[in-house]
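ASSEMBLY PREDICTION REQUEST
Request ID: AP-0331
Submitted by: J.K., bench scientist
Number of chains: two
Total residues: 487
Priority: normal
Notes: Please return the full assembly, not individual chains.
Input sequences:
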Amino acid sequence: MQRILESQKMPNVYTILTCLLCTSLMFIACNDEVTIPVGALDEHIVDLRGDWNLKIVQQNNNDISDLLSFTDLSLYLEMDNDGPTHYRIETNGLPFAVLADGTWSFDDVTYPTSITFTTSEESTTVLLDRPPVSGGDFFSVAFSLGCAANTYVYEFTKQ
Amino acid sequence: MTKIFGRQHLSIGKLMLINTLAVITLSLPKCFEITEVRQPETALVDETINIEVDIEVTGKDGDRLVFAFLAPRSWSAAKKTTMHFTSTIGGSNMSLMDPEELDPVSNLPWAQQITEREGIGENYGEVQWVVYKADDALAPPGNTSPDNPVNGTIFIETKVGPSNIITQLGYFVSEAFWGYLDDGNNSLSFFYDPCIEVSGASGQAQNLCGPAPRRLVDLNQYTFEDVLTIRFDAMEDSTALVGAGQVFFCSKGIFDSGPTEICETTTRTEMISGGDNIWYLTLWPPEYYSVPNGEIMSELLCNFQDKNGTIIKDPSGNDFQILAKCFQ
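STATUS: Completed
Returned structure:
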């Protein structure tokens, strides 16, 4: 009977020791300072400035890149420290959401989900098909040209 | 009564009743009769037309009228139609039915059920049933019968579409409580003959009452602002271009200011072979036809040719007609 009681007590001792060890490790860990680089948590404006060429065109998820000379379409996006400013477009007779030069803007300069192009006559918003990589080599936008039932995705690559 | 019963209880209870009723009423006449339809046989584009449908209600069951109107999708009838009725027991405005509302017997949306069971008349397609329901419940008197019907008239005001078209309009009457009974006695449809002709716009009419045209554009819906791929199957109708080495797309973009024709045997119009006598050409109409500033292209007329002068048109000898189809 006594042996049984002793064996029942043994796990309690181990449990206590384990808890003490964990607690002490926790205090040791909490004493280490975590160093965050200066500016690491700053939010930056997504940078899409530069010359972009149209590379891939999808119509309702079908690749139609080779059916018209889509690579003749190019877009030049300008930005300053506050974000997007002007854009220039060379359509060469190809369709896009806008066909004339103007200004452009993000809906959110840090986490953009859409771009609005504004000409002297109209303002057109296109959705960013994927979150753009700031300073990256490509971005893609989705929009409708005519019937809203049809979606076009244009993927641009940096020249 | 629909407020008293939940949907589940209603379905079970009603199905039992309907089965019994179906046996009893197999030899009975329909609960509705459409006795006369007054509808214009012609109209101008964008004109508002008035239609009157005389109805006899010959059964006393049910109290909320359901009425559907078959019209071309290009008319956007659900947005441009108003409807009401008068009768010997009163009248009511009729409102567009919630598209989610189900026929209580089939548990299918009313418009789908009507399309499947009544069809679309002589139209080859491009039309839709638009369903309305009475705002007010009006129960026929207990002595209503084929010999003592409730007489009424449904008044429809609708605006026809902006393009030339020939189409058959249709009408359907039922009631909401019992719904579309399997024996068909609680509903009735009627297709007006002859087809109505809407004219006044430029270009030839889209004849929905004629044979279905070739499908020449691969998109289900499109406008002339979309990138269009024209597809020509030389084997369809066994055309004289079967086995051709080259096929050219001869076309006219139609604008208010007149047509822009591009009919030449150059790389601009040369179609790409897809094999098996299928030919493709992709174009963006605003650029291809140099759309005049501010003008809208109303239709595209085309034929297919080779360099030897073989020209393929539609079976009636006219150019094939391509019209915008966008219903969103």
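REVIEWER COMMENTS: Residues 22 and 28 of chain A are 10 Å apart (CA to CA).
SIGN-OFF: pending second reviewer
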